[in-house]
Amino acid sequence: MRILFLSILSLLIQACSTSSETHIKQSELLTLLQSEQFPIIIDVRSSREFNAGHIPHAQHIPFWQSFTSDALDNKEKQEKVVLYCEHGPRAGIAKLAYTSAGFKNILYLQGHMTSWRKSGLPMETQ
């Protein structure tokens, strides 16, 4: 139980950090979106938050559904996956789910949705 708690705590801390090993910069993601070679982008926020505005081409899989969703079953486990929430902690929980599902190349969006919005970068609404 203690190891599980420490693992989850570690993922939450990583999600809120800004390391280049665990995060993709907003400018890098924007370049990928513009080149149409974008990675799998997953918004793990609530439906209300997602509908109010999300990154173009993002799939909505709320963090609490990450462990049970089959939305990524047809994706290659080596594909780049970018997770984001509003600030970071929910993305940390989702990373645990996708790592357990076998995905190897998971990154967080640097600054998450808060920074994306403040930077005036493109958003879609539902």
Report what the structure shows.
The protein is an alpha/beta fold and 126 residues long. It has a single domain (2-118), classed as Rhodanese-like domain (Oxidized Rhodanese, domain 1). It is 40% helix and 14% strand. The protein has five helices and five strands. Strands 1-5-4-2-3 form a five-stranded parallel β-sheet. Helix 1 packs across helix 4 (89-100). It is globular and about 40 Å long. The mean pLDDT is 87.
Class from helix and strand fractions: alpha/beta
The CATH homologous superfamily is named Rhodanese-like domain
Q: What is the share of helical residues? A: 25-40%
Low-confidence runs of at least 5 consecutive residues: none
- CATH architectural group: 3-Layer(aba) Sandwich
Return the string of H and E elements: HEHEHEEHEH
Largest sheet geometry: 5 strands, parallel
Let me know the number of strands: 5
- Computed CA radius of gyration, to the nearest angstrom: 14 Å
Write down the CATH class.
Alpha Beta
Number of domains: 1
Set down the secondary structure blueprint.
Layout: H1 2-16, E1 23-24, H2 26-35, E2 40-43, H3 47-52, E3 59-60, E4 80-84, H4 89-100, E5 105-109, H5 112-118
Parallel strand pairs: 1-5, 2-3, 2-4, 4-5
Helix pairs in contact: 1-4
Can you summarize this structure?
It is built from 5 helices and 5 strands. The protein is α/β, with parallel strands linked by helices.
What are the salient characteristics of this protein?
alpha/beta, single chain, Oxidized Rhodanese, domain 1, five-stranded parallel beta sheet, 126 residues
